């Protein structure tokens, strides 16, 4: 089939019209409200099943509601996919679409439906989908994802700091305080608790009974771990929030919020114009050549 064939052009037009209709549906406020309600009901049912007596008494009803919710989520993701019928690749470029699709499809796998624990974890993952419909929560979740590289670097630096001070503590206090510094593991656990400043006074006075250098040891450790490192982590999170907010503003239409009515009207006009052009292209092969008009034009002086 040629790329310029009328059949292919008509197919493209139908997909564009289908995508426009599905797009208006999934962007409607009532559709968003229904999706959030379904997610909230899923969370309520998941919490209700933790009560053994209630779960036994209403087992059949809870199972039926779970199947209905699963069907509703499947219809929702199918409509979102249809909204990208004319550009399927764009559907997979959105991380939320990929996440929703994975959560819904995994629930239909045989080994997942037979495993109660995995199925409950998937149902719990549906609650995270609430972030898709709440802009501020969506920004926070995006910021958490973007802060992972910085958080990993922070953990590496923190681990190195903890290792160095654990070795110093073992060398200085192991003989007199084996309960807290008798090994590298004990020293690291002690310092990890001190990172929260819990029991710092007792540790300091206990260290001073062993060596006067304990003040320098604990003061420098608290300064680096509880103040400097925490401020670095806060800086990583704030930078990630700024990046997530900027990315969210780029994805939203100009002016923020949902697309205005003028944009929807323009899309409808473009879709109608495409359909008219495709109808004209389909009619062109059936128009007979105007030989008489051509002959008269050629005979004129």
UniProtKB/TrEMBL annotation:
Q: Does the keyword Transmembrane helix apply?
A: yes
| One Pfam assignment | Ion_trans
Which SUPFAM superfamilies does the record cross-reference, listed alphabetically? Voltage-gated potassium channels (SSF81324)
Q: How does it sit in the membrane?
A: Multi-pass membrane protein
Q: Can you give the residue ranges of the Ion transport domain?
A: 30-246
**InterPro entries per UniProt:** Ion_trans_dom, VGCC_Ca_Na, Volt_channel_dom_sf
Which protein are we looking at? Answer: Ion transporter
Q: Which UniProt keywords apply?
A: Membrane, Transmembrane, Transmembrane helix
